[in-house]
């Protein structure tokens, strides 16, 4: 598929597929089209040509969005929103609340649950949005530089979380410049000026062999 902003061809003839249990890392220089690709895969942007096939529930973890100090939401609220699947869900069940606490624990910010989101540091906020993506155990997890602003020991924890997600069968696509992420990936897709620089190369065997693609274009 291809995607263009008004004056810029951001993606040209990009084709990929990711199966359940696979971790695909998307790498490439600034401006090469990585964020655009994740947004097109997530359905936030519609490809200009071609199509994206998604199987199952898809969650997107964006890169530390700016938060207005006026926004009256706590960290727990933000993670709970991850349960909504794109629409307001109203009341939460006890199981939802347990799931939210577990997600907060997995990303190491359970103690911050009742804090207003706007009072968090950048790295803490990134963890909150990671928990939002993890909370409903999606079939497809798309992440735009999830370790941005996260300290060194936290980065390793995030990589382990992504491997855990693949072990339970999720298809994971993660933008990262981090050599650890690249080393731990099943495949790496390198973009250059909106095109695939090399075909994805299998760098290690996935723990479960994908039977069909969970997402592809
Ligand atoms: N909203 C926009 N309007 C116009 N052009 C855009 C827009 N967003 C991105 N672009 C352009 O599209 C191309 C791809 O941008 P994209 O953000 O996808 O790259 P990236 O690889 O994620 O970069 P980075 O590593 O800096 O985050 C770039 O040339 C960029 O300038």
Automatic annotation (TrEMBL):
Keywords: ATP-binding, Nucleotide-binding, Transport. One of its GO terms (molecular function) is ATP binding. Residues 195-217 are annotated as: Disordered. Residues 195-205 have a biased composition (Basic and acidic residues). Residues 1-215 form the ABC transporter domain. The keyword Nucleotide-binding applies. Belongs to the ABC transporter superfamily. This is Metal ABC transporter ATP-binding protein.
């Amino acid at each position: 598929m291809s995607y263009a902003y008004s004056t810029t061809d951001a993606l040209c003839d990009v084709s990929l597929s990711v199966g359940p249990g696979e971790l695909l890392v998307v790498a490439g220089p600034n401006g090469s089209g990585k964020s655009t690709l994740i947004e097109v895969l997530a359905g936030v942007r519609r490809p200009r040509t071609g199509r994206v096939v998604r199987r199952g529930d898809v969650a997107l973890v964006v890169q530390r969005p700016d938060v207005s100090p006026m926004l009256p939401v706590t960290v727990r609220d933000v993670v709970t929103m991850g349960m909504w699947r794109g629409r307001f869900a109203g009341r939460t069940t006890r199981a939802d609340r347990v799931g939210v606490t577990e997600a907060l624990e997995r990303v190491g910010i359970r103690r911050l649950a009742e804090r207003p989101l706007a009072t968090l540091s950048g790295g803490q906020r990134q963890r909150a949005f990671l928990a939002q993506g993890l909370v409903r155990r999606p079939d497809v997890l798309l992440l735009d530089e999830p370790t941005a602003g996260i300290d060194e020991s936290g980065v390793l924890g995030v990589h382990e979380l992504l491997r855990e997600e693949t072990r339970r069968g999720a298809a994971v696509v993660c933008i990262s410049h981090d050599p650890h992420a690249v080393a731990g990936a099943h495949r790496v897709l390198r973009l250059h000026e909106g095109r695939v620089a090399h075909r994805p190369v299998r760098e290690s065997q996935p723990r479960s062999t994908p039977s069909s693609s969970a997402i592809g274009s």
